[in-house]
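Handout, section B. The chain below has 295 residues.
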Amino acid sequence: MVVSLYTAPMEDEPFLVKTIKKANPAYGDFLNSEEVKKSAKDAKRMPSMEAEYRNFILNQRVEANNPFVTPTLWQRNGGIPLDDWGDAVVYGGLDLSTTNDLTALVLMAYIGGAWQVHCRFWLPENGLVDKSRTDRVPYDLWHKQGHLSATPGSAVEYSYIAQEMAQIFERYNVAKIAFDRWNWKNLRSWLSESGFSDYDLEHKFESFGQGYGSMSPALRELEALLLEGKVRHGMHPVLTMCAQNAVVQMDPAGNRKLAKDKSSGRIDGMVAMAMAAGVTSNAPLEYVTGSLLSI
């Protein structure tokens, strides 16, 4: 028995058909050429897909960390979201922070042919200027402009966040909020104090893992939306900062997640956005990515 391994040279342009053929002698035969070319096109537009493409299409062993989204693609989805969501069904992702870090909530609703996005971000009020200097981003300015909320004291006060969550549920037709498990127990008690029933806490909130198993399909959902230009995030400055910092890490099986320890700055908003996109997979058919029908 003879085993042959084909790989494309690293110095070759990775998205050309002639390069693909060097690693795939069955290209155009039992290997579907249209699917491969689509993979190449998507990887060229979405950096987070490039490592996977190089590994599985070109048979190249490459570093599996990539930026999640290019500035150009992010800007292409930067249309101003609608203010009035009416009775549209809303999904969200909540990335809970440690006591003095960024907490992020990203809400999404499918209206007018696109997923409209509204964001909420929280940091402690005390030390906000110092944190701006440390992270080299204008948190203090964003707070003055209304893009970032400052919770009283030197730590993120979950009582404050719970009260804002109650207001959000009053304003929007919220179907599901995905949350990471970090500090959920503490927030849950404050949500109860703010008027959420046991039914709400069990059915409106969904635990969402931060590992490869949960995040990989969520990233695929979000990537598809961005590539199709189906997002309207309004270039929210805090969310945009998180998008610029977001790096994808891949395991040997090709599963991916957003890696906070590999990123150059805060990515909490993109983690929350990925969770929001991921939880829409349980939405009714007309809201699901790939079946975006008029409503």
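Note. Confidence is low (pLDDT under 50) at residues 288-295. Compare this with the example in section A.
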